[in-house]
Amino acid sequence: MASMFILMCFFISLAFVSYVHYASRQRRKGDRGDGHGKAVRLPPGSMGWPYIGETLQLYSQDPNVFFASKQKRYGEIFKTHLLGCPCVMLASPEAARFVLVTRAHLFKPTYPRSKERMIGPWALFFHQGDYHLRLRRLVQGPLGPDALRALVPDVEAAVRSTLASWDGNVVSTFHTMKRLSFDVGVVTIFGGRLDERRKAELRQNYAVVEKGYNSFPNSFPGTLYHKAIQARRRLHGVLNDIMRERRARGEPGSDLLGCLMQSRAPGDDGDVALLTDEQVADNVIGVLFAAQDTTASVLTWIVKYLHHNPKLLEAVRAEQAAIRDANDGGARPLTWAQTRSMVLTHRVILESFRMASIISFTFREAVADVEYKGFLIPKGWKVMPLFRNIHHNPNYFQDPQKFYPSRFKVPPRPNTFMAFGNGVHACPGNELAKLEILVLIHHLVTGYRWEIVGSSDEVEYSPFPVPKHGLLAKLWRDNSVSVHTDGCQNGDNDDNGVVIV
Ligand code: HEM
Description:
Layout: H1 2-30, H2 55-59, H3 63-74, E1 77-82, E2 85-90, H4 93-102, E3 107-109, H5 113-119, H6 129-140, H7 145-166, E4 170-172, H8 173-190, H9 196-213, H10 224-249, H11 256-262, E5 264-267, E6 270-273, H12 277-308, H13 310-326, H14 336-340, H15 343-356, E7 364-366, E8 370-372, E9 375-377, E10 382-385, H16 387-391, E11 402-403, H17 430-447, E12 448-452, E13 459-461, E14 465-467, E15 472-477, E16 499-500
Parallel strand pairs: 2-10
Antiparallel strand pairs: 1-2, 3-7, 4-15, 5-6, 7-10, 8-9, 11-16, 12-15, 13-14
The structure holds protoporphyrin IX containing FE.
């Protein structure tokens, strides 16, 4: 007992001494000049305990409450210490723009090494500079409007099959939507030419990689992380086989994989391949990763928001029913032009992006000491633009807790709406994500009704926020969905459908 007491006293004293040492180091750091006689100081905020910082506070409550209460206390720029790293949080559109756009070269993307290893170190989002630019140019083609136009039938087929498998069952909406966004990702990357066996191999191995990505990085055999590293190797094997088969046929293809495989640059002895097969494979896995949980989380929120706003749902149904009628009751396929004409549905999607803000923030790391508005952001510190705080700030979005699609009749103020980020790393998949969501909503509201099972008030992180249990819901086909079209053809009737969540 006595030895226990002595041990406790020892640890408490050790923590206290380290804290004093750490606090004085931080103070010294904060008193730096800018080299021109002007004093620059660290932003306000608290750094918590040595090494663990404020990580426990962050994880013991809703992270959005943590960031919002900090902003209330310290303002739009504040410091903290999370997961072993000193951080500066930025909750103003100007500061986010500074980091992501105007001074992007001073802030590099930063991810834990374990995550880089899992996705593949050559994936574009880990990079800056020439390699990153080159890859962006390559992926933008197959993810741009011209390529997506041709993809509408494949996306529609994936949506129909997802809804048919849900029909009559109670399922986790999130898991169902994950399957859909994986299928759409596969169609985008492989152009719908992948046989079912290969697709199943990709799906199985990718699922193991994903579990490991979200687990503690421990390479002991049997752990989720170890299994994931092995599954990643198998994924590379499958991708290498697919590339080999395409080369043997002499048809690399014009889909995303084909574009990555065919990229060439002038070399000393003629054109050389721009990317190795390993780089291609890392980027294929990277795109699948970036596309799946993001789109699935937003779709889950949309299913909930529409269900909770019956008048809005009727207005959306009316807009979609008019398109279905024009397509002979759904006998003819949707067209790209029709997806561009879904004015009200598009506003619902934008408002869902804002409201759910599933990517609450992003990370960068300062590559030099940087001064912003008299504050020092020291080299090596993490910098986090807080998208959600900006999307929920009443100065930019009135009554931010209201689900109110009409607010998007007027474009938001520049740099205040960053569902897809901003600057050089902004999401290249945004048009694909919107297309998938529009097509899903079209078929959902014109062919089905659904009921949410249990409470949908609590939120879980998987890793993005979604309603608890991924929103359990029952769906059933209803070919006779009655549609009230009075005055809502142009999407002007959504003002009634508001809810506070
Ligand atoms: C609703 C769905 C989606 C949301 C909310 C979303 C959001 C974002 C955001 C905020 C970023 C920027 C991250 C940062 O600056 O650190 C990003 C980057 C990225 N997204 Fe998306 N995304 C979505 C869907 C997709 C899809 C469908 C794809 C691909 C098919 C995709 C591919 C990417 C890639 C490759 C990057 C990295 C870009 C770079 O580093 O240059 N995303 N996404």
